[in-house]
Amino acid sequence: MQPQDHPAPSHRLPPAMSVLIVDDQQPMRKTIAFILRQLGLKNVQFAEDGDEAWRILNAGRVDLLLLDWNMPRLSGLSLLERIRKSESLAKLPVIMVTAEANADHVVTAVQAGVTDYVVKPFSPDTLAKKLYAVCDRCPSLVRLRAGIR
Fold first, then answer.
1. b or e along 110-139 (b: 16 or more beta carbons within 10 Å of the residue's beta carbon)?
2. Pick from 100, 101, 53: nearest CA to 80
3. 43 phi and psi, to 5 degrees?
4. Architecture of domain 15-145
5. What does the pLDDT look like over 42-53, one tens digit per residue?
6. Interacting residues of 48 by C-beta distance below 8 A, sequence separation 6+
7. Overall pTM surpassing 0.85 (yes/no)
């Protein structure tokens, strides 16, 4: 099944959703962006590390963050912790997209407030299912899907 062929009617991503992909590996950023475009998302931004992502997050509107764990300068986990301490960004949905698959890393991310977790390598369908699930349970994305900003 292709991600764009997902049958459930509630599994619709808000087309206006702004997504920030943060990963130090350009091929991974491109792969994720390709999947997002296949799902109908066009408003995609990129950052190579947590510092650059932090600047983007504070400069404009981002509705969803796809975040790698291991990056130079500011790690994904450190950025997540900073986001959760920020008054304006604390409720931002964050999906950790990382090769860190051991249970300790998952527990650490959950304790830091991650919204969901995807382990690399992943299929387009796996990422799509995570995106649909996050959009179904995060109030800001439910409102956005209903056309309310």
1. eebebbbbbeeebebeebbbbbbebbeebe
2. 53
3. -90, 85
4. 3-Layer(aba) Sandwich (3.40)
5. 999 999 999 999
6. 22, 23, 24, 26, 71
7. yes
